[in-house]
Amino acid sequence: MKHLKKLITTKFSKLRIAVIGDVMLDSYLYGSVDRISPEAPVPVVSISKKEDRPGGAANVALNLKSLGVTPILFSVIGKDEVGKKLLKLLSNSGIDTSNIISGKTRITTSKTRVLSKNHQMIRFDEELQNDISDNEGDSLFTLIAKEIQSKKIDAVIIEDYNKGVLTESLIEVLMNFFSEKKCPVLVDPKKNNFFAYHEATVFKPNLREAREALGRNFGTSIKELNEVHIELTKKLSHQYTFITLGEKGAYINDGTTGKIIPAQIRNVSDVSGAGDTVIAVMAAAISAGANSFDAAFLSNLAGGIVCEKAGVVSIEKQKLIKELKRVFE
């Protein structure tokens, strides 16, 4: 435990980690349900509170920031009111927004959740999922290359929500570039580009995503997951496979050995954004010198903590340290 605590308290603050991917605005409407609508058999929610938070890759950046890491966020949004609100929220959180491109032909992705008693009742999405233009892709790559060539970057997180920022051609250029620069890359994939991320350092799907991509409903035994690792590495030639298993914990394979990390017993309120926390902590831990198993343990622990709160939230550094102490007592 002591060596993990030392990583968090002394090394995280020295790290600079790039985050590339789809950003969005997460909006929350909190209220209570006291009656059924006379117009249709649906609950009437009396709204008492509204809140906006950065989501997607922006939430990954927020998680890094709350851990003491310096995040460098790269993305493309729309030139609209939602985009302006998102940029303001990020700036107010101390995150540099100079590498976020505002495109005239796009809208900024937003997700609005209605919650009652900390339980999500319904979600409304406003978005365009078409690819960014070639010019926007070129401009984004230019910003990324300039940053990595001019300053030290300890790792790169690619956060793909299939909202169009990470096109197939941009992914290929980025992965080749990072390979040349010998820069560690952690990938959180989604369905559309699942097999496009060749030679990543860490490949982190969740269980459902891995099952869908491979086209079979495999189980969560160590034998089956080791077979999945072999199948994925044949297609992607990556270094570590890290599959989150929900209430069953997480699976990590360092290329030699596979291991299942059990989940801690928790009062789960909302799993939204837990994957963002997991990959942020994984990137920070590996960049700080942790081995893959310790990094996976710490990431899994952090992901469980944020599930105890409603909505998409960031991991708190002191809360993670406190939880680490509790687990090893």
Describe this structure in words.
The protein is of the alpha/beta class. It has one domain: 3-Layer(aba) Sandwich (UDP-N-acetylmuramoyl-L-alanine:D-glutamate ligase). Helices cover 38% and strands 26% of the residues. It contains ten helices and 13 strands. Strands 5-4-1-8-9-10-11-12-13 form a nine-stranded mixed β-sheet, sandwiched between helices. The protein has a four-stranded mixed β-sheet with strand order 3-2-6-7. A hairpin with a 2-residue loop joins strand 6 and strand 7. It is globular, with a radius of gyration of 20 Å.
Provide a quick synopsis of the model.
The chain has helices at residues 2-11, 57-66, 81-92, 134-150, 168-180, 207-214, 222-236, 274-287, 292-306, 317-328; strands at residues 16-21, 23-36, 43-56, 70-78, 100-103, 110-116, 119-126, 155-159, 185-188, 202-203, 240-244, 250-253, 258-261.
Give the helices and strands, then pairings:
Elements: H1 2-11, E1 16-21, E2 23-36, E3 43-56, H2 57-66, E4 70-78, H3 81-92, E5 100-103, E6 110-116, E7 119-126, H4 134-150, E8 155-159, H5 168-180, E9 185-188, E10 202-203, H6 207-214, H7 222-236, E11 240-244, E12 250-253, E13 258-261, H8 274-287, H9 292-306, H10 317-328
Parallel strand pairs: 1-4, 1-8, 2-6, 4-5, 8-9, 9-10, 10-11
Antiparallel strand pairs: 2-3, 6-7, 11-12, 12-13
| Computed structural class | alpha/beta
H/E element order: HEEEHEHEEEHEHEEHHEEEHHH
Name of the level-1 CATH class:
Alpha Beta
Low-confidence stretches: none
Oligomer: single chain
How many structural domains?
1
CATH homologous superfamily classification: Ribokinase
